[in-house]
Amino acid sequence: MPFTPNRDFKRAPRLFARAQGLYYYDPAGRAIIDGVSGLFATAAGHGREEIAQAVHDQLRELDFTPNFLRSHPLAFEATRRLAALLPQGLDRLFLVNSGSEAVDTAIKIALAWHRARGDGRRSLLVSRERAYHGVNIGGTALGGILNNRKAFADVLPAVAHLRHTWRAESVFSRGQPETGGEELAHDLQRIVELRGAENIAAVFVEPIAGSTGVLVPPRGYLENLRAICDRHGLLLVFDEVICGFGRTGKAFAAQSFGVRPDIITVAKAITNGTIPMGAVAVDRRIHDDILAAAPEDGIEFFHGYTWGGNPAACAASIAALDIFERERLFERGEALAPRFAERLHALADLPAVADIRSYGLLGAVELKPEGQPGRRGYEVQKTLFDAGLHLKSTGDALILAPALVAETAHLDEIFSILRRVLATLR
Ligand code: PMP
């Protein structure tokens, strides 16, 4: 099992057998409330009948076609629907099957674009400490987590890492920290000066570093990265695999923070978590330049996956986007966010809590480490499961990302379990 201490799991397996709404059920029928939308995926809650029906109907109509040389109408409909939610002009899409594939595809698009413009020396990538961009080779190189990188260090493409954006002075801040944005973004300027803009292709950031602990960028940070990229001809890529689809209050974090990247990667909630799917959205000019540079009648971009844009995933995505729209889910999530933040930050009085961070419906409670760093987070996450709450731990941080359809009563339940368990810790 991935990212799992397998020996420990075999001793005490924790299984889900069923899910509906905000709840998972174990094989014995015990309800476990879902505090993290599975894994940042089920924005509209579990067991959505409309999606199941759409996938069922699609499999009976057209079960499979690759998207090479031929395609199918739903692939175009899905991309049109997605483009309508994205920042204006990011309307050329490449469909893949996961967040990791989206990231590695985005790397290749960025490199292909510079080469198409005769700027082929630009191959260095920039990302951040504590970044997570999936586990394919490109994303592993971008990532800023030692354990994920160390066995592969000598085969990873070249990446320069900015500092992560957590600062001790911003502890317990709600939303964006007020200070440090400009200074932290200046790391990019320093890398440009050290390595030369002419060697750098693109800067990858999660608008909010999600799976490593909800590190919300200070005010001005993303704006300054954008300005430095513009000044030096670097592409700015937002990895919105977690932040996308209403998690931050708007459809995408690019809109919440008012910063327009050149490329956005998405996955997870794109099908409400049901069928594997991801997408890379690129600015139209990137698409046009790559096409213009290719020989007449030749393949423009040598890349693709057998299941990218498969009919079942496209049907699931369109059905999910229908639900998001019909139920005005992004607005609903935005309206729920202050209540979520209030309950989350109320945990600050507990002695074991070292920091709390939040933005939109994304939050983290950082525990004071006990013994080896990460040990306590892992143990508490298991205790919470046994107490009836599913969430994600990363190091000693507990991460919450409830579904956008959560009701106040769900938040009450999530936070009462959390308080009860955390109150036993010192
Ligand atoms: N990018 C980000 C920001 C992610 O959070 C994740 C997954 N948590 C990925 C990429 C990788 O996605 P996947 O697991 O679907 O490959």
Furnish the topology, listing elements before pairings:
Blueprint: H1 6-11, E1 18-20, E2 23-25, E3 31-34, H2 37-40, H3 49-61, H4 73-85, E4 92-96, H5 99-116, E5 124-128, H6 137-142, H7 146-149, E6 159-162, H8 181-195, E7 200-205, H9 221-232, E8 235-239, H10 253-257, E9 263-266, E10 278-282, H11 284-293, H12 311-326, H13 329-345, E11 353-359, E12 362-367, H14 375-386, E13 389-390, E14 392-394, E15 397-400, H15 408-422
Parallel strand pairs: 3-13, 5-6, 5-7, 7-8, 8-9
Antiparallel strand pairs: 1-2, 2-3, 4-10, 9-10, 11-12, 12-15, 14-15
Helix pairs in contact: 3-12, 4-12, 5-11, 8-9, 13-15
4'-deoxy-4'-aminopyridoxal-5'-phosphate binds next to helix 5.
Explain what you see:
With 426 residues, the protein is α/β, with parallel strands linked by helices. It has two domains: 6-48 and 328-422, Aspartate Aminotransferase, domain 1 (Alpha-Beta Complex), CATH 3.90.1150; 51-326, 3-Layer(aba) Sandwich (Aspartate Aminotransferase, domain 2). Helix content is 39%, strand content 15%. A seven-stranded mixed sheet has the order 4-10-9-8-7-5-6, sandwiched between helices. A four-stranded mixed sheet has the order 1-2-3-13. The protein has a four-stranded antiparallel sheet with strand order 11-12-15-14, with helices on one face. Helix 3 runs antiparallel to helix 12 and helix 13 runs parallel beside helix 15. The two termini are 32 Å apart. The structure holds 4'-deoxy-4'-aminopyridoxal-5'-phosphate. Belongs to the class-III pyridoxal-phosphate-dependent aminotransferase family. Keywords: Aminotransferase, Pyridoxal phosphate, Transferase.
